[in-house]
Amino acid sequence: MTVQPSEVLPGDVLLFHGRGFVSWAIRKFDGTEVNHAAVALGDGMIGEAAGEGLRRRTVEESVTSNDFTVVRRLIGSDVSPVATTANAYLSGRVPYAYHALVLLAILSSVRRIPLPGAARRLVRSVLDHAAAALNAYVDAGSKLMICSEYVYRCYDEASYEKPNPYRLDVLTHGASFGMTTLPAGGDDESFLSWALSQPSDMVEQAAVQAFGTASGTVFAIDEEMVEQRLAPLIYDYGMKTNPADPELEALAPAAFAMEPAAATKEEPTDEELLSSMAAFSTALDQQRTGSAEEYGVGQDVLRGALQGLRDVSADPNFVTPGDLLKTDSLDDLGRVTDV
Predict the structure, then answer these.
(1) Neighbour tally for 337: CB within 10 Å
(2) N or C end of the chain: which has fewer CB within 10 A?
(3) Residue 234 pLDDT
(4) pLDDT tens for residues 179-200?
(5) 307 to 145, 183, 284, 299: CA distances (angstroms)
(6) Number of independent structural domains in the chain
(7) How far is CA 157 from CA 90, 163, 246, 331, in A?
(8) Between the CA of residue 268 and those of 122, 124, 246, what are the distances in Å?
(9) Beta strands 45-50 and 68-73: pairing type?
(10) Range of the domain at 171
(11) What pLDDT score does 156 carry?
(12) From CA 189, how far away is CA 186, in angstroms rounded?
C-alpha cells in the first residue's frame, strides 16, 4: 500500500531504506530492510537523530533521499504525547548526536556475522572511524543517541502510567549476540566474544597500543568521506558473503571508483583488531557513562570497556531500526515511495 506524505500523522514511525554502502551494511548486519528511523511531528515534519544532532526535516525531504520509507503506527491510542515528547527532545538543551558508523560498529561487533577475511578489514576500519566520531562528540560536549533509540524513547517516555500504553515491545538481544569463547574465526562467534576470549597478555598489549602516545590514527568523521573510505571494504565483504545481492550490483561502480585507505588494504593482525576494538569500546563506554576522566591503560580497563559494549547491546534502550520494523506494537500503513 502506498502512503502519501499528507497521510503521515504525529507519532507515526518512519523507517528508511537508504542509499549507499553504510546503509547497506547496517541492513545486512541488522538482518532487516531498513537502516534509519524517525518519528513524525505533524505539519509535514519529522524528528530524527543525525550527525549534527537531533533535527527536524520535512517528510518530503526525508522520503526523496531514500529508496523507500515504511510508515508504521500505534493503532488504537492517541499518540499525540509521543510527538510532544519528540519535540521536547528537539527543544532540549542536551546536544544529542548520532553517526551511522556508531550503529554499524556496534552491530559488526556484537552480531554473529559471516567472517571471511574481508570482514576483519571492514570491521577494523568501521571501529576506528566510529571511535573517532565518539571522541569528537566528547570533545564537543555531545551525547550519543542512535536514531532508533530516539524513536523508542519518544514512545517509552510519552507516559509514566503502568502499564505504559505507548511502550513498544522489541526483541531482547542478549541471547542473540554470540557471547561465546569459540576459537578466533569461529563461524558462530561475534568479534566481541572473540575479543573477550583473548589471553591477558594480548589484551594488555592492545590496551597499550590503543591508548599509548605513539598510537592514535586520526580519521575523518565527515559522512561523505567515511562512505568513500569504507565503500571498497563493504563491497568486498558483500561480494564474499552475498555476491548475488542486486543492491551490490547497483553500488559496484561507486566501489570501483574509490580506494580504501592504505591501512585497510591488508588483513589486520589479531593485535591490531583488538586494539581497534579497545579504542571503540572505551569511547562508547565514556559516552554511555558520561565520564570525562581520562582512561588508564591496562587489561582491566579494556575488559571493562568490552563488557560495557556487551551491556550496551543488551540494554532495553538499544533498539535498532530493524526492531522498530519487526515489533508487533506497530502496524504497517504502507510505503512512501514517491512524492
Answers:
(1) 14
(2) N
(3) 92
(4) 332 233 444 578 888 888 888 7
(5) 20, 19, 11, 12
(6) 1
(7) 14, 12, 40, 20
(8) 10, 8, 29
(9) unpaired
(10) 5-336
(11) 94
(12) 6
